Amino acid sequence: MALDPRGSCGFVGALLFGMALFLAPGVALCCTCATVAGSPLLAEQMPDIQRKDSVVFVGVVERLVPEIVDFDLLWRRIFREERPADPSFSQMRNFCLRLPAEYFTSVERNQVGAAKTKAELDAVLEKFERRERRVTLRIMETFGPHRRGSILVYTGYGGGDCGVDFESGQRWLVVAFRDTHGRISTGICSATGLAAERQKTIKSLRELNR
């Protein structure tokens, strides 16, 4: 059974997936990987490099946008204190407005700044689509008709949205999917993983790629 490497989740409508934990801590986050009973674990499944929409390679992470998706860490950096269990409206709005520019467009930032109550702030943020993390990797080894060089891959923020926890400088086996617009995405519902932990799969791919 072919898997969509992005997975799927029923939680939608938040500006930043991790930020939803601040705004609605009771919301249920999920990552549902469609597979069938008795099939191999996702990490052990052999990528189908014959699929026209598959993009499979070993690469090194060069750049992440945004670089940080740990919002507790961002809170500590901005306010130099731990995040309260239930941030006030003023704290939450100030946090949003003080995030680096890569998290919001100017229009979004203005809308956040115009909110007068926590309910209004929640309503503004819920109108936006969930963000995806943009990951640039340098291709070191490719399986299929792909050239070496840098490639941009999209994934979730993690913590429940099927996103891959990439870090700069790490070497990964990436099993991704290219949509009809050329956008390449991956998630934990695929064999994507640290290259050191996917040596068996990489060896099999090399044999297929001869």
Report on this model:
There is one protein chain. This protein has helices at residues 20-23, 71-79, 89-98, 106-114, 118-126, 199-208, and strands at residues 54-65, 133-143, 149-155, 171-178, 184-185, 193-194. Strands 1, 2, 3, 4, 5 and 6 form a 6-stranded antiparallel sheet that branches. It is of the alpha+beta class and 210 residues long. The protein contains 6 helices and 6 strands; from the N terminus they run αβααααβββββα. It is 24% helix and 20% strand.
Give the tags.
single chain, 210 residues, alpha+beta, six-stranded antiparallel β-sheet, 6 strands, 20% strand, elongated, disordered N terminus
Compact overview of the structure:
This protein has 210 residues and is α+β, with helices and mostly antiparallel strands.
